[in-house]
Amino acid sequence: MDPTRTIFIFLSVLLYGSTTGFSRVFSSESCRFPAIFNFGASNSDTGGFAAAFIQPKPPNGDTFFGMPSGRVCDGRLIVDFTAESLGLPFLSSYLNSLATNFSHGANFATVSSTIRSPTADVIPQGQASPFYLSLQYSQFAQFKNRSQIIRRQGEIYASLMPREETFAKALYTFDIGQNDLTQSLFLNMSIVQVIAAIPDIVNHFSDNIKNLYSLGARSFWVYNTRPIGCFPQILTSFPSAKKDSVGCAKPYNQLAQRFNAELKNALARLRIEFPLATIVYADLYSAIYSLYTHPTKNGFERPLVACCGYGGNYNYGRDATCGGTISVNGKNIMVGSCKDTSVRVSWDGVHFTEAANKFAFDLVSSGDFSNPPIPLKLACRPR
């Protein structure tokens, strides 16, 4: 063979191997999100409800913060672990006006928020937070515009607001929908009636994703809803519900699964509509349900019993909320926490402990519980 041709082939193979190797390295490189913008309800509220209305009472916050931190939890939430994993500070609530730094993102979630407007027939006004998802979107749109006006003032203002390019590179996370189901149930709607409302709920969610995309958002990380049939709140309120093999209320978990299936299909359609976006469906339901099927294996105990509560088989009572005061045999006592929160799943009968949040985050962020199967740190790669 001609020596020149041999050298050419050798160099071609070497070059091809180098470039493909480089592509593999590049494709696995973390996205380095400069900010997180979160939308949701109490499971991801880091102080919105506390700033607007009332701060959760102790022992909320005791495990990590040593005091109430605006979170309905003994410590950190999944959104906090998200920020930590990306090397970012915890998110400040958009509603918090005191000593707030928004350069790394903002949190629009508030306790009791729903996807649909609380003025809708299914959730009458006064039964949910006024900060439903479309209003959270409106707050974000205002924030995006006004933050740049403030930033242009320079000096300290510039350091407290995100750069303009941050919005296109940021991660947009969503943890909302649970209240659309549970609040309807507590307004005496049947499961059949709530199921009938799910397509409209999910359509409202999709509309907000589209609106955010129109403002430049490209990386979306969407949590499905949790196994509500395992909540002490549901088990106490609907004691006659048929139980599954681990003791969860089967019809109510099936309701959550129905919502999740609709949400998953909607996100699949959005991926087709927006091929330049990364839209990930994160299966929080399955990750958390594994705490009920294999609690001991995963280092937990008594998963169906609330840690901070009082009364009944599940240590939960609607009038005995965590941190509140109740009268027992003529004595006023504070509703306190269990001794070891690190081995408990349910915090107050509705929300989860820091330990459970960390467990669920580690599973879901790996990509093993998401569709498409993308780890959180690579959620800027369209699939």
UniProtKB/TrEMBL annotation:
<dbReference type="InterPro" id="IPR001087">
    <property type="entry name" value="GDSL"/>
</dbReference>
<protein>
    <recommendedName>
        <fullName>Esterase</fullName>
    </recommendedName>
</protein>
<dbReference type="Pfam" id="PF00657">
    <property type="entry name" value="Lipase_GDSL"/>
</dbReference>
<keyword id="KW-0732">Signal</keyword>
<dbReference type="InterPro" id="IPR035669">
    <property type="entry name" value="SGNH_plant_lipase-like"/>
</dbReference>
<comment type="similarity">
    <text>Belongs to the 'GDSL' lipolytic enzyme family.</text>
</comment>
<dbReference type="GO" id="GO:0016788">
    <property type="term" value="F:hydrolase activity, acting on ester bonds"/>
</dbReference>
<dbReference type="InterPro" id="IPR036514">
    <property type="entry name" value="SGNH_hydro_sf"/>
</dbReference>
<keyword id="KW-0325">Glycoprotein</keyword>
<keyword id="KW-0378">Hydrolase</keyword>
<feature type="signal peptide">
    <location>
        <begin position="1"/>
        <end position="21"/>
    </location>
</feature>
